[in-house]
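Marked as duplicate of an earlier ticket. Keeping the data here for the record.
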Amino acid sequence: MATKTVEVQNAPRKSSSNRAARSTKRPAETRPLRSTKANATTFAESTLALQQELDTVRREHAKLQQAVYEAAQIQRRLCAPRELAWGDFEIAGESFAVRHLTGDFFKVIQLDSDLGLVLGDIAGKGLTAGIWQTHMMDLVHRSARNHPQPGDAVAAVNRELCQDLGEPPITALFFARLEPDSNELVYCNAGLPAPLIFRSNKSVESLEEGGPMLGALEEATYGSGRVQLNPGDMLLAYSDGLTECRNHQDDEFETERLSAAAKCVSGTTASQVLFSTLAAVLDFAGSCTPADDLTLLVVRRCEAVTIRGEAKGSNVVSMTRRRIEPVESRQVTN
C-alpha cells in the first residue's frame, strides 16, 4: 500500500513537468520559420546583387572586346598597302593574328625614288606585342629616311631601341629598298628566317646578309646585301610563324614545305602566290590552331611579254608590260 501511495502522489508532478516541457518547445518550433523567411529574403537579395554585378562585367567585357577589335582594325590599316602594283613589280602582303592583336607587321613605304619593304616580328603576341607595333614601324620609317643603306637604317633602329627604353622589345626585322632603275633589292635581315628569292629558272636563293635581332645588343653591327631581281623572279619574306606552324602530329611546316608551296604557283600573280601559300600552311595545320602570328610578303617582278599588233612598216610590236600605278586607296606611305 505504501508503494501505491507514492506512485499516486508522484503522478501529478510528472504530468506538470511534461506540460512545462511542451510549453517550452512551442517557441522553439516557431523560431526556425521566421529564420527561414529571413534567409530566403537575404538569398534573393544576394542573387539579385550578383546578377547585377554579372551584367556589369558582361557589359565591360563586351566594351573591351569591341576596343580590341577596333585596335586590330587599326593595325590592319597600318600594315598597308596589302596589294600594290609599282612599275614592273607586284607586291602583296598579309598578316594573321592568333590573339586579335599581332606583334607581326609589314609595310611598303615610298623612299624618294625607291620603294621600302618592311617585315617585322616582335617577340610575344597579343596585347603586349601589339602595343609595340606602332612604335617599331615609326622607328623603321624614320631611320629609313635618314640612312640610304638598309644595314645602317637597321643599326639605327637597334641603337634607339636599346638607348630609349628600359626593356626594349626583342624584334626580328627584314628591311629592303627596291631600286627601280637597276631593279636591285638592297636588304638587311635582322633575325628573321632568311627571305627566299625564287628565280624564273626554278632555282631558289636565301637572303642571309644582316645581323642579330633588335633590342638585345646596342653595339650590334648590321650589313647590307644586294640582289638583282630579273623578270619572273619573286621574293618571299615571312615571319617564323609560317615555318613553325605545327599539325596534329606535331610536325612543323618548315622552309622546305614553304618553298614547295610557293614554287607550285610561282608563275601567277603576287596576290595568288600569297594566298595560295598561306592556304598551304593552314591546310597543313588542319584542326590545330597556329601558335604564332603568320605574316607573308610577296614581291614579284613581272615578265616581259610580246604583244602582236599592226604598226606602220611592221607586223610585230614588242613591248615590256608595265603595271598601272595603284588607285588612291592603295598608295604607298610617304
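See parent ticket for discussion. The two ends are 127 Å apart (CA to CA).
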